[in-house]
Amino acid sequence: METQKQEQWQGKPIVFYDGTCGFCQGSVQVVLKYNKRRSLYFAALQSGVLEALVPKGQIPVPLPDALLFYESGKLYTASEAALRIARHLNFPLSILSVLRIIPLSFRDFVYRLVARNRYRIAGRTESCMLPSPEQRAQFVA
């Protein structure tokens, strides 16, 4: 990613998702639908945007299953990422953010269970989804 483009996305909340996962792509579609303010941006984990935007020390190795969320210079993983994304959504999905009161270890256990089985739940695709022209502005790459 060019430095100018990198600076353009710095400070923007970005959802990083598995572009070959049907479950992940469906989740992105739900987030697009309920993020009426269009405050969230998206990039597939396979796009190279994560590595270009986020300092190496913040990127977990190996990359976790399914979802990462970059906001205010910090990278969130697993259930914390999902619930922070929920804060940006309209009612009724915004209510999900209150699940942060559940202990992180239990939330992440449930998250990892779903993430490990996401291909069984919704399949695998050979390519990333194609956003509509209206949604395209919300995709980093």
From TrEMBL:
UniProt cross-references to InterPro entries, sorted A to Z: DCC1-like, DCC_oxidoreductase
GO function terms (MF aspect): protein-disulfide reductase activity
Superkingdom in the source lineage: Bacteria
Alphabetized Pfam families for the sequence: DCC1-like
Protein name as it appears in the record: Thiol-disulfide oxidoreductase
Organism per entry: Pontibacter actiniarum
